[in-house]
Each structure stands twice: as structure tokens, then as C-alpha cells.
UniProtKB/TrEMBL annotation:
InterPro entries in alphabetical order: ATPase_NBD (IPR043129), FtsA/MreB (IPR050696)
Name of the protein in its database record: SHS2 domain-containing protein
Domain of life of the organism encoding this protein: Bacteria
PANTHER family xrefs: CELL DIVISION PROTEIN FTSA-RELATED
């Protein structure tokens, strides 16, 4: 996708969340699978959301914050980045894993790359048509079609080009968003990188690809990203991103409850939560925030349990849990993953919980000290993939 001729490249990775945006500028020796990027600068912007925003209001505020942040980045750099990776959170994209099956007319004929691409293209058409009503004037832009698993005659075969067989099955994850939104992103990033050098993906997909280098998941895992307005749950099984589930509760909802109780601003509510997590507040405030947090997390657990139970009717739920996002620093979320919660979803094992701190990738970077805590996990994954030209 990008030129590999330079001795050193500079990249930009941007994590667009529902209550904040985080961006990093990094350098790397080259876009190679073994590249170890060096984080140079970290940029942050957060939204002040005293009330839960409507979708169009959220998009508008995120766009304003992104425009200002990109201006700051451009002003701080002596030259433009060679390329950029942007990770979208729900509700800014639609994603689905589709199983495509083809009965081949001649089983003895070798499978070609063109044959695979034709089948993937056929899946693209059915995927986009599913989300467009003839009555709606909605144009979608497909920004991702990732081949995750290939099966021939019922057997999983990693490399299928040149193989033979009667039945070919592909597992492909498609990702799309509104054409209008994509054009808006192109315009916002134009002063820094051209369309050809701007790669857009979803954060669950970026984390899925990066996480394997830090956390073995042969037994599968559940990646829970506790964002601002929304939590995204990625179920990874058999080396495939099987399902992405969203629940409309995140840490911004909790910050609003804290700010309302203490009659302070939304940002002060966020600050109180951080102080509460570090156990530096007086006992009275801590007790009050603990009560608010526990009530909120119980609501969150009900929504999570309902989503996982629906999935578990036909699938196993892995017991390995990875928590990331701004909410992962609170103990209440971590403690909510009791064996009782997972038992309701047909999992018999005691959950093993990992906090997705960027330090999990410390051997993959030459310098990354400015990235701290689970809130930076998404942008860390994007920077790693960007430096290695993956996706």
C-alpha cells in the first residue's frame, strides 16, 4: 500500500472514539513486518458531554475536535507524515462477518487468486445491499473486506491459492460507513496526507490484528473496549474475529452521573473518577462515587450479559477477557467479570482477565513511554499496524 523505499518513515495513527480522540506521530526504520516504531508525540482531544448526545450531535462534535487536533498536529511537524491510519469506533461504522461458499464446477482445477477475489466481491455486494433501503438516499463506502479463514471441502487450509477442491468457503469481515462521512475524513486529513495514504479501519479490527503479537489467543478471547458512550465487545475464536457487539453504555455515562451528583462539570466528574481509581479522595467522596459506580456497572453488566447470552445460544464464549478503553482503569468493571456472569453464557472456566495496557507491546516498539494505560491501547495497535503496513 505504501512506498518502502525510504530509510525512515513517519506515520500518524488516530483513534476516533465517542468521547475523545487520541493521535500519535511515530517514526520507523521502514514499513517492514519487524519494524519497531518510535513514538514521537501524543495528541489528545476530549469532548465535554454534560448530556448524552444524539448520533448527529456526536458526529458533529467529534468532527470539530478532529479538525482542531489535526491543525495542532500539522503546526507541530516540520513535514507531513508519509501516511496515516484512522481507527473508527461504533457508531461510525458497520461491520459483519459473512460466510461465502462456492461449489466449484471443476474440483481438480487449482484455485486462483482471481476466483477468491470474485467471491469476496460477491459478498461485498450482498453486504452493502443489506444496509441500503431503496427508499433511503444513503450511499455507503466499503473500507474493509478482510479474509479471516479459508476452508476447502470442510478442512481449514491457510494457503488456498493453487489448492484443489469441490467446495470453497471463505470467512470475510466487511466494514462500511457513510460515503459522506468518509469524504469528510478525506477533507479533514487532506492538509496532512492524500486519500491514497490515508487508511481507515475499525478499532476492533486493528486491535484484533495487533493483539495476537502480545496476547496468545489460541483458546479465543473476548476483547471489551469500554469507551465513552459505547462499549465494543469483540469475540475472537479460532483465530477469527467472529463477532463485534456494541452496548450503549460507556465511561462517559458514568462520568455524567458523578458530575450530576456532585454538581460539577463533566470534565470535573471525569477527574473525580480518575482520583477515585487512584484512591486519593477522602472517604466520604469515595463512598459516594463507589455507590454510583457500582450501580452503573450493574447496569452495564446486565446489558453485557444479555448480549453475550444471545451469542452463546449457538457459540462458545472464551474465558480469556481483555479489557481496554477509558473505563478499564476502574476495578468495578474488572470485578464484574465473575465466573457467575460467564457461566450464564455457557462458559465453565474461571475468567482470566488482562488489562490491555500499551506496555504489552513494549518489545514491539523502540520507544513508547508517552503511551500509558488502557485508554491508549487502541492508538497503540493502530501505530503498530501502520508502521508495519498491515491491513
Amino acid at each position: 500500500m505504501f512506498s518502502l523505499g525510504k530509510k525512515e518513515i513517519m506515520g500518524l495513527a488516530v483513534d476516533i472514539g465517542t468521547s475523545s480522540i487520541t493521535a500519535v506521530v511515530f517514526t520507523a526504520p521502514n514499513c517492514l513486518p519487524t519494524s519497531k516504531p518510535c513514538i514521537k508525540n501524543v495528541y489528545r482531544a476530549s469532548l465535554d458531554m454534560p448530556r448524552k448526545p444524539r448520533a448527529e450531535t456526536l458526529e458533529r462534535q467529534i468532527t470539530t475536535q478532529l479538525r482542531d487536533l489535526l491543525k495542532t498536529i500539522r503546526a507541530s511537524l516540520k513535514k507531513n507524515p508519509d501516511f496515516a491510519y484512522v481507527g473508527l469506533s461504533a457508531p461510525f461504522y458497520i461491520s459483519r462477518l459473512i460466510t461465502l461458499t462456492s461449489t466449484r464446477p471443476k474440483a481438480s482445477a487449482p484455485i486462483t487468486k482471481e476466483e477468491i477475489l470474485t467471491l469476496i466481491k460477491k459478498g461485498e455486494k450482498s453486504f452493502t445491499e443489506e444496509y441500503i433501503s431503496p427508499k433511503e438516499n444513503l450511499k455507503l463506502h466499503l473500507f474493509g473486506s478482510t479474509l479471516l479463514k479459508t476452508i476447502i471441502n470442510g478442512y481449514r487450509i491457510p494457503e488456498i491459492v493453487g489448492a484443489t477442491g469441490k467446495t470453497l468457503t471463505l470467512f470475510v469481515r466487511y466494514e462500511t460507513t457513510a460515503k459522506k462521512y468518509i469524504n469528510e475524513l478525506y477533507d479533514l486529513f487532506a492538509p496532512l496526507v492524500s486519500e491514497k495514504k490515508l487508511h481507515i479501519t475499525s478499532l476492533p479490527t486493528a486491535c484484533f490484528y495487533a493483539i495476537g503479537s502480545a496476547i496468545p489467543f489460541k483458546e479465543g478471547l473476548v476483547h471489551v473496549d469500554i469507551g465513552g458512550e459505547i462499549s465494543e465487545i469483540s469475540i475472537i475464536y479460532d483465530d477469527v474475529l467472529e463477532k463485534i457487539i456494541t452496548i450503549p453504555l460507556g465511561n462517559a455515562s458514568l462520568a455524567r452521573k458523578v458530575s450530576e451528583y456532585f454538581n460539577v462539570s463533566f470534565k470535573e466528574g471525569e477527574s473525580l473518577l480518575r482520583q477515585f481509581s487512584k484512591e486519593v479522595l477522602d472517604s466520604k467522596k469515595s463512598e459516594n462515587i463507589a455507590a454510583i459506580t457500582n450501580h452503573h456497572v450493574r447496569e452495564w453488566c446486565v446489558a453485557l450479559s444479555a448480549a453475550l447470552t444471545t451469542y452463546a445460544k449457538e457459540n462458545d464464549i472464551p474465558s480469556n477477557i481483555v479489557l481496554s478503553g477509558g473505563g478499564a482503569f476502574l476495578k468495578a468493571y474488572r470485578q464484574s467479570f465473575s465466573s457467575e456472569l460467564l457461566h450464564k453464557t455457557h462458559t465453565s472456566e474461571t475468567p482470566h482477565i488482562t488489562i490491555a495496557d500499551p506496555k504489552l507491546f513494549q518489545n514491539e516498539f523502540s520507544a513508547m513511554s508517552t503511551l500509558t494505560g488502557p485508554r491508549d491501547f487502541g492508538v497503540t495497535c493502530l501505530a503498530l499496524l501502520c508502521s508495519r503496513n498491515i491491513l
